[in-house]
Amino acid sequence: MKELRVSLRFAPDDVRPVGTLAEDGRRLWFEFANDPPDISPYALPLAPATLIEHRPKSGVPIPGVFADARPDGWGLKLLHRAFQRAGRSASSVSALDELAYLGDRTMGALTFEPSTGPEGSLADSVGLGRLAQHARRVYDDEVTDVLPALVRAGASSGGARPKALIGLRADGGPGVVFGEGELPEGWEAWLVKFPTSRDDPEVGRRELAWMRMARAAGIDVPPCRLLELGPGVGDAFAVRRFDRPGRGHRLHMLSAAGALDVDFRTAVADYGQLLRLTQFVCAGDQRQVLAMLRLAAFNVASVNDDDHLKNASFLMHPDGTWRLAPGYDLTYAPSPSGERATTVAGTGKAVGRSDFERMAGDVGLRPRDLGPIIEMVLDATAEVERHLSDAGCTGAVSRVAIDAVRENSHRLR
Question: Among 283, 284, 360, 363, which residue's CB has the most CB atoms within a 10 Å radius?
Fold first, then answer.
């Protein structure tokens, strides 16, 4: 039987026992510690000293809150390459093996012991451009031998696209380090997204434009910037990590998929459900509910159809309070079918103002709550052409994006 001790590490001197994960073949259990923190109030309510058997579901082999600490997509690809290099086939690696390999090098604040992977460390011997070029080749399955620096920098990240966890100087000075070690004084934790061979050259600049537009719409977004990767590679979008406030401190992050204990790839989701979830997780804090409503309106107006349940999260602070996490993965992302990942009052295509009004009424929000939010979002998306121009986006995809945003925004008037 495999066992992992789970803790919540808010700081080096603030580590709180959560419980124990155990697996025996295909069966998995979790037992809370005494007086544990409430890490997932909706799907895994507190039950101290109670053995809970997890019923595996497709895409959710472990409880959702722990699945959030487990990488997916790109990070999982790097993680399994590391296991293969050690002589382990992908079929022999369980979710607990993956969490044990990461140990305390996870996104968010959950940590797992005993750790089987390398200790968190930083590297600066590989240039950012070279790392991006190597990530592209790994993404395209052109190489199987992955640079250790890339494994350190990307194995704990989620999402399908190549990413790396890096440190940048807080004063904007030169230099970059990779990995999950403790950053030196004066450095900040960032995440950088590398372009792939399938992307148009403006993909990173367009995400920068969308984040600036989201900020204008009143959405809390973290600092972001472009990083030059060098000739032949272009540039990359980088965003300040909101789960790492600095000085060794961490925040517990719970995605909507983790909170609901569902597979974000197959779950049928509606923003009405997310508004109720926000109300529950954030203990009725109406400001957080309205923040989720604003995020929904912006995603619809800005044609971000890839608004699945991993792209909205909650943050838990050391005092136990929850709030909606800052906006992330906000960009022009039209679906081929026109159907968005998360519907509005059951409508997934050509969402209009009436859909928002119906949804708001269903969850007890008033028209005077909804109106100012949509108007502020529309004021921001009306400037989509300027935001794209300021970010240096003039290509064909960006020109199509302008018309698509104007069309979606018009439906919300």
Answer: 360
